[in-house]
C-alpha cells in the first residue's frame, strides 16, 4: 500500500500546510469539496516554515489519527502542535530532536555529581526539554566542579546548603535562581534517601514584580491606541488581547467557538496553554470586534503571528512605546484591574491561570462570570469621563443600564436591551 501526501481541503481555511497520507483509491471529498477521511486509522503530515537567524527554515512532522476521527476534528487538534512547531523552528532552525546520550551510572558512587547525572537522565525521559535545560543550567553554574559536587550526599548537612545559599546571595544571584537550585539539590537528595530538615534552610524572599509598571493613564493611552487602530483585523485581535487572552489562542479562534445566545466564547483545550477548555463572556466590545471582521466561518481573524506583531509595533511606535511586547498586555490588564479593585481570583480566572484551581473549585463561583468582572474593571477604567472611547451604541446602553441596575446580572441587562430595540 503506497501512501502519498494529499493536501487537506477544509472550507474554514484551518488546514493550511496539512496533508493526509492516502492511497490513490482513498482520495475522496464531501459534497462541500472537503477532504473525507479513510475508514481506518490515518496520518496527517504538518508542514511549517519560519524565520531563524534571517533564514527561512522549513520542517514537517507526522501525527497518527485514530480511526473514526473526522478531518475537521483532527486538524483542530493539531493546530496547537503546529504553532509549537513554528516556535521551535524560530528558536532552533530545525525540528530535529537532539539525540539524548545517557551516561552509564555507578549506583555505588554516592557523590553528588554521579547522583545528579542519574537523576537528570531520568528527567530527560519524563520532563519537558526546557525544564531539563533549566535544571542543567542551575547545576553547571553553581555546583559542578565544586567541593559540594564531589562530596558524598550521605555527608551533606543543613549548613552545607545554607552556606551555598549565602554565597550565592553575596554574588548577587537572583532569589528565583537560588530557589531553582534548591529544587535540584532537594530532588537529588530525596530520591537517594538523604533526609535533611529543609525547614531550617532559609531562602531569600522572591519579590513578585509587576511586568507592567506604567500608570493607569499610560494603560489607558495604550488601550485607546489599540482599540482605535485603523486596521480592522488587528483592532479585533487587540480587543481580545485587552481582555486577557493570549495571542496564540486568539488567532486560533473560530466562529464556531462563539455562542451569541449565551454571550460566551470557548477556547478549546487544544488551543490553550493549560490544555483545558475554558469559556469566557462576550462583552459588547468583543462582539463588536468579531462582527467587524469579513469572515463568517472558520478562523475569525485571518492573521499570522508575524502580521499582528507588525501592527502592534506600529501602534506602539505611534505613541512612543518601544519596550513592550504583546504578551505584556496581559500583565497590563491584570495589574490595572487589581489597582482598581478587581478581585485577585477574578483576575486569575480572566488570565486562565491554573495555580489557584483548587481554591477556585472550592470557594469561587463561575469562572466566566469572574473573568468578566475583571474585564469590566479594566474596561470601566478605559471608559472614564476624561478619556471616552468611541464604541457602538449597544455598549453605551449596557453601561447606562449597568449603572442604573448595579445588582442586575448581565443576562438581565441584555434582555432589557433586546426589549428596547
From TrEMBL:
A family per Pfam: Phage_integrase
Domain Tyr recombinase: 209-376
Top-level lineage group: Bacteria
Keyword Nucleotide-binding: no
Key words, A-Z: DNA integration, DNA recombination, DNA-binding
GO biological process: DNA integration; DNA recombination
Domain Core-binding (CB): start-end pairs: 110-193
GO MF, any single term: DNA binding
Designated name of the protein: Tyrosine-type recombinase/integrase
Protein source organism: Candidatus Sulfurimonas baltica
